[in-house]
Design goal:
Layout (H helix, E strand, L loop, with lengths): L2 H8 L8 E6 L2 H10 L5 E8 L2 E8 L2 E6 H5 L2 E9 L4 H12 L15 H10 L16 H4 L5 E4 L13
Antiparallel strand pairs: 1-2, 1-5, 2-3, 3-4, 5-6
Length: 166
Amino acid sequence: MALTSAYPELREKINNGDIILFRGIGIRAWLTQYFDKSYYNHAGVVFISNERYFSLDSNADKIDPLFLSHKMKKYTHFCIVRPVGWYQFEINDAVRKIMHKDEKVNLHKKDKASSAQFIRRYLNKLNPPATCYENSNTPWDFIIYADEKFKIIGDDSDKAKYRKLE
């Protein structure tokens, strides 16, 4: 979904624990899209606190919570992958666990996880864990391997041009 009009429209519909897939610009984004044969090249988990929306994701060598509105400025398109196979309190608990200082992911500490690996860690905190993404290595995998426990919102990619299920 194009960011210029979609984010303000969808902001109030975004839930805590939603996965946001981003399509970026720049050489690193282009390389990811080219070599992974993917439309989206980055992913984050939405964390809502005091009516402020954050994207919790892996960037370079650390996990950072960034204002979602600021994060959106760096990308051209996005879509939402919403966990629907769990109650919202279970999703909220998984978001809390991924942020908890006793977990493997420690905010602002060195962590070489890719954005897809970070999302898999989050989904493994759900009970029962999401299994459709066990072998996911790229943000695009969160579109092509989605099962009935996930709802895709706002995806305007041309899937025929990108990697398909084997």
